[in-house]
Design a protein that fits this description.
By secondary structure, the chain is of the alpha/beta class. Helix content is 41%, strand content 19%. It has two domains: 4-231 and 340-395, Rossmann fold; 235-337, Dihydrodipicolinate Reductase, domain 2 (2-Layer Sandwich). The longest helix is centred in the C-terminal third of the chain and has 21 residues, at 338-358.
Length: 401
Amino acid sequence: MSPDHRKTGLFLVGARGAIATTVLHGLEALRAEVAPVGLVTAREEFASVPFLPLAGMRVCGWDITGDSHRSAAELARVGVLPADLVDLCGETRDRFELRLAPGVGDPRDADLMDPPARERLRLPLPEAVEALREDIRGWMRDEGFHRGVVVHLATAERKGSLPPGWNDPEADPFQLVAGAPDDLSRSLLYGLAAVAEGLPFVNFTPAIGPAAPALAGYAHRRGVPVLGNDGKTGETLLKSVLAPMFRDRALQVMAWEGYNMLGNRDGAALADPDRRAGKVANKDAVLRRILPDPNLHTEVRIDFVPSLHDWKTAWDFIHFQGFLGARMSLQLTWQGSDSALAAPLVLDLARIALLAQDRGEGGPLLPAAPFFKAPLGCDEHDFHRQMELFRRWLAADDSEA
């Protein structure tokens, strides 16, 4: 099929998960002219920015297990997706299932995988990367996509060390993959496949992804944007907004305790301490960067509460000191749908990544900082300052980008 300049592929890792399912149905709703609430790139102030139209975006991707019909039904049951939208999108999900490819999962999760994904586990890592590249080429060819972007939405990975060589931005990542251990972060495999095919890569998870210098350097040399890491949607977003208030009003924060409860598949995965470690570190680092007081006490806890399903709840306790040592506190509770908060950001980031590619930018995209807990190449965690950086970037013409 000849490429259609109106069609763009959105290739999701973890394509049957709750966030990806919300993205799939959200695109259908937006095509039916539902209001784009939560979409930053759809704000009136950015109306003159040449973002790629969402109407031409189609979802494909990878997963190691699951069923998109079941995911959609569950999200409708708990009030995240409108039931009538789920009913109307049955054929869309049928077509979506036909386009899906088996993911490349962690060997330690083999018992959870469908047979096709277990079959891919037998591939040496270089062949696994080639299989992912062939998936991308097949979708681009068979669906007639003119453009494409890969977004990593897979379940949080277990904590692991970066193998030797990956900290060298000049290293050849294909050579590194050939000698890497079998449990190498899958975000590196998907990222490498995307960049090698010339597609921007967005890492919405706490995995290492393009924070690995070898992958970032390769993306820079190839002129392909990479964005990440770890989407900022809930409690951490709140911290990045509130902490600057205490700093700028010269109030001393003595302690900031955060307790998070989540019940979906990600919540179940984060019950594993090895998977939880990266997420907790990213959530805690935001405060440390904004409030550098060495005496500040912070703690972040995450618990799996199955009955909450997609509704994550966070309770924060902030103990601070004011004039003449008067001690005060702020307590707040945040409750939101994990998927409804994340899905529009996935669409935003896809459009931002493609705009950066149109401008000829490659490697880590610093202006995407307000969308991530651990933004690549950016030490600024104040949300409003991050947004100003983002606005200045959008306002720049091609010659300044």
